[in-house]
Fold this protein.
Amino acid sequence: MRFDSLWVNCHLATMAGDREYGVMRNGAMGVRDGRIAWVGPAQELPKDAEARATLVKDLSGAWITPGLIDCHTHLVYAGTRAHEFEMRLKGASYQEIAEAGGGIVSTVRSVRAADSDALYAQSLPRLKAMMAGGVTTLEIKSGYGLDVANELKMLRVIRRLNRETPIRVIPTFLGAHAVPPEFKGRSDDYVDLVVKEMLPQVAGQGLAGAVDVFCETIGFSLEQTERILQAAEELGLCVKLHAEQLSDSKGAVLAARNNALSVDHLEYLDVGDVPVLAKRGCVAVLLPGAFYYLNETQKPPIQAMRKAGVSMAISTDANPGTSPVFSIRIAMNMACVLFGLTPAETLKGVTVDAARALGRQDDLGTLEIGKTADFAVWDIDSPADLAYQLGGSPLRYSVVNGRKIA
Ligand code: DI6
Ligand code: FE
């Protein structure tokens, strides 16, 4: 057996198998052609493995985890909303700010005013912050353009981030994030535009593989959501949904029945709807950063989902309004402290379950033979440290497609 690189003197949190973290102390991992070619206890390595490896990396006792996956972000945007943070602290609610022309629509104005280069330049430092925290796969949604040209502009910026940075960036089309000001009072007409013009162009140009909708009283109704999800499916696109963030709109059940990859937020999910998610294998994506910033008190029904065996992914929801969080490990810590997840559940939530929320579970999310060699090397004593510590970064470096990135 010949390897391009062989990683030795390390501990592995493979996130595979039944043991917590899939822990393998004193492990080794071999990579060939960008994929994991061997993983196991060091003493079981074939005798000539080191001699036959092009590169041998002695990790001096570091831990390797799968590369972290942030499966729900709105990281591409222009401008800032720090003033809304100030307004909320003076008593205004997120809904009041949105109804007064702030909120998502204020970022829409900034995004429309920015050209592609400016949008790229403003988004890049945020991507780098994610990368510095061990993220190797990052989903990014459109949704601040809200007209054909600007939604496509956002998706092209997302594609450029994928091409010009070392991490894997996965685009999602969120044309139905909010009703733009020029369609005020005519939301069905805007849904027409999404379905008849935006979706065919997005699919035709291969700009996104999945479609999301903000199903909410301040977003799109259940009927409008259904129209968009069905149109997406007809074009062969995967679907996911912002559901039950501020109210129980019954979006999660609708999405799960439409084979959604994931339903995201879920603070107001009815316990009675949990079995549908379990039955349909739909991932629940938890976004504790938005819960935290909005001072929400209603928690997602974690215990019911855990009992029903629903996969729970964790993500930052990185966005300028409700979750200016650019660290996946902070989201993991919040999921522990605010939602009561265990550190092991949170690491699963940013690897295995996040991969599933993106439909990439066959290829990403665990350290297993045949999967893409995306992993992170950490100076930690145990995998629980990743969710335990706030501040600083124990990341030594990450590897994408078998290649070390900065
Ligand atoms: N839910 C959220 O938390 C973000 N989008 C959404 O649908 C908020 C986005 C923003 O306020 O800019
Ligand atoms: Fe979101």
The pocket of DI6 (ligand 1) is lined by residues 74, 103-104, 107, 177, 214, 242, 245, 290, 317, 319-322 (CB under 6 Å).
